[in-house]
Write a structure and sequence with these properties.
By secondary structure, the protein is mainly alpha-helical. 64% of the residues lie in helices and 0% in strands.
Length: 187
């Protein structure tokens, strides 16, 4: 069930992503690329390698790796901007209860005392935690309020123009189609 729910949310987000035009500030993309590069470098260090070694091994430069990361970085930034706009419009925020629950979950996962985990979430880390909760809640909100049309399992024979009674045939998409939310918006 979790996998199906995850795939459904991703399909809905893909529809929203594809249907939305957003001006993406280049500095946000550059920052995202650097974050992704840092994360990749950290993964390499766990494997006993660093970014420079990886670049030499693959015949790429670090700038070449940055260039490869750029399309994914742009997509992540665009998705975040869209979700943040929806969260702002719908007034979606992280509650104190959700924050505490998240911190407790992290303490349990890392087998640490809750107070130590709380102390590590100050300043920028705390803001990132709030943003993560807010964006997850926004994704849930979108999934709950999306109207989905599923494609028919059986393919029906196509009608000729004469059989269609001059009405255009409706084609159904393979992936779910998200329609505009009907949730009330405060003005």
């Amino acid at each position: 069930l979790e996998k199906a729910e995850y795939e459904q949310k991703n399909a809905i987000l893909d529809v929203i992503y594809d249907a939305t035009e957003v001006d993406i500030p280049p500095i946000m993309v550059a920052d995202q690329v650097e974050d992704m590069l840092d994360e990749f470098g950290q993964q390499l260090r766990y494997q006993g390698m660093d970014l420079e070694m990886y670049a030499k091994f693959t015949g790429k430069s670090v700038d070449g790796i940055r260039a490869e990361l750029k399309p994914d970085a742009e997509k992540k930034v665009k998705a975040r901007l869209i979700l943040e706009a929806i969260a702002k419009t719908e007034k979606i925020e992280a509650t104190e209860e959700e924050i505490q629950s998240e911190l407790k979950e992290m303490a349990d996962m890392y087998k640490m005392e809750l107070d130590k985990v709380k102390k590590s979430f100050v300043g920028e880390n705390y803001q990132m935690l709030l943003q993560d909760i807010r964006l997850r809640k926004t994704i849930d909100f979108i999934a709950e309020n999306a109207k989905i049309e599923k494609a028919d399992k059986e393919e029906k024979p196509k009608k000729t123009a004469e059989q269609a009674d001059d009405k255009p045939a409706k084609e159904k998409a393979e992936k779910p189609v998200a329609k505009k939310s009907t949730a009330k918006k405060d003005k």
